[in-house]
Amino acid sequence: MTLVIRVDPDRPDRDSIARAAGCLRRGGLVAFPTETVYGLGAHALDPVAVQRLFEAKGRPANDPLIVHVSTFDQIAALTRSVPAEARALADRFWPGPLTLVLERSERVPNEVTAGLDTVAVRIPSHPVARALLAAADLPVAAPSANLFSRPSPTRAAHVLEDLDGRIDIVLDGGTTDVGVESTVLDLAHGTPTVLRPGAVTLDQLRTVIPTVVLRSPEAADGRTAMASPGLLARHYSPRAPLTLYEGRAEPALEALAADARTAMAAGSRVGILAPREELEAIRSMMDRPDPPPHVEDLGARHDLAEIAQRLYAALRAFDSAGVDLIFARTVSAEEGLGAAIRDRLRRAAAGRIVTS
Ligand code: TXA
Ligand code: MG
Questions:
Q1: Strand 38-43 to 30-33 pairing
Q2: Which of 14, 54, 217, 331 is least enclosed by beta carbons within 10 angstroms?
């Protein structure tokens, strides 16, 4: 049985937090909201708890976890040394949606780091996450609270879709703010490198460390244990195959509409995902088929914050609707949250990308 406890996202009550913190201390699994997505927490220094976490998610053991803490001082015990760059980034971005990869100390179990010599750490800003971490007074390993390869959860209902009965507690604090996962920045291997784009953008990072680079998603770097998301073929995926249409709007929308029409003519149940302003154009290019396809509105084209917040819920809605094929349009912006949104959509497409 999974216990669902509703909490006020801004002022979670002490009893609910104490109950969840006690569960973590005893080696239990607690899902909780962060500012990015819901995390599934386990006592990071308890290898048995961490193993239970991998089992609950169905996550391969070679994919390391992020350790969440509530104070910067806790990081010293988890790492061999804390570089000046980490302190500078912490001053600017913590608490918040940035994860730092640092050299690990002996205290961190191999189960957490997948045997790597580094550990990923972050101080989240969501009041529920902060209250839970402070009350538990532990480092908490927390991947996104979804089954492996499924879209990350931005609501408690998404956590239950995937993990009901497999975990002990869900703290339901409503919809998460950012909607996509934290930026992962590697500070342990020479040039500071963004391994996963997220809410803290490259430009923001460069105001603190001008030399930061973005790792190209295709770059396989031979660090085999480091199954960071770029190395995984299928990730953040709805159940139905998703094809992504990139490039100039007009030809991309025409290609999308033509492919969707062909699929519907062949009897497939079709899902369409696009920014609000493009949906009407797609409908008319498809000659308004009857019955209509299942359409999910990604949000206003230029409101990247809205799109990030809606993205995973939209992908999950296609599962509930039971579509066979999804045709999706991406956003063009590379700046701000654009890079993270484009990255997640590309992974959901798992290589099915049509470029106009
Ligand atoms: O926003 C987030 O980061 C959310 C919330 C819950 O904090 N967590 C999250 O965790 O997205 P997860 O496990 O779904 O993604 C963690 C990513 C993985 O891609 C993993 O490969 C990478 O961080 N990672 C963890 N430890 C690493 C390490 N030592 N070196 C390189 N990458 C690492
Ligand atoms: Mg995840």
A1: antiparallel
A2: 14
Does an H or E element contain 48, and which? Answer: helix 47-57
CA-based nearest residue to 329, from 314, 309, 317: 314
| Distance set, CA 313 to CA 37, 238, 282 (Å) | 11, 10, 21
**Three-state SS for 234?**
coil
E strand or H helix that includes residue 119: strand 118-122
Contact call for residues 66 and 195 (beta carbons, < 8 A): no
SS3 category, 194: strand
Distance of CA 354 to the CA centre of its chain: 24
Residue having the nearest C-alpha atom to atom 17 of ligand 1:
228
Where are the alpha helices (H) located in 235-295, listed in sequence order?
A: 249-265, 276-285
- Protein residues near ligand 2, an ion, with CB under 5 A: 144
Task: Enter the tokens of residue 261.
Answer: 């029409």
Ligand nearest to the CA of 227: 1
Report which protein residue has its CA nearest ligand 1's atom 24. Answer: 64
Mapped onto helix, strand or coil, the DSSP state of residue 131 is helix
Ligand nearest to the CA of 63: 1
Give pLDDT tens digits for 161-213.
999 999 999 999 999 999 999 999 999 999 999 999 999 999 999 999 999 99
- Tell me if 192 sits within 8 A of 185, measured CB to CB: yes
Q: Report CA(4)–ligand 2 centroid distance (Å).
A: 21
Confidence class of residue 287 from pLDDT cuts 50, 70 and 90? confident
User: Using a 6 Å CB cutoff, which residues line ligand 1?
Assistant: 34, 36-37, 39, 63-66, 97, 99, 101, 113, 116, 118-120, 124, 142-144, 181-182, 184, 195-196, 226-229
pLDDT band at residue 227 using 50, 70 and 90 as cut-offs: very low
Domains of the chain, earliest start first = 3-214 (3.90.870.10), 242-355 (3.40.50.11030)
Tokens of 350: 């798992």
Half-sphere exposure of 323 (CA within 13 A, CB side): 26
pTM of the predicted protein model: 0.94
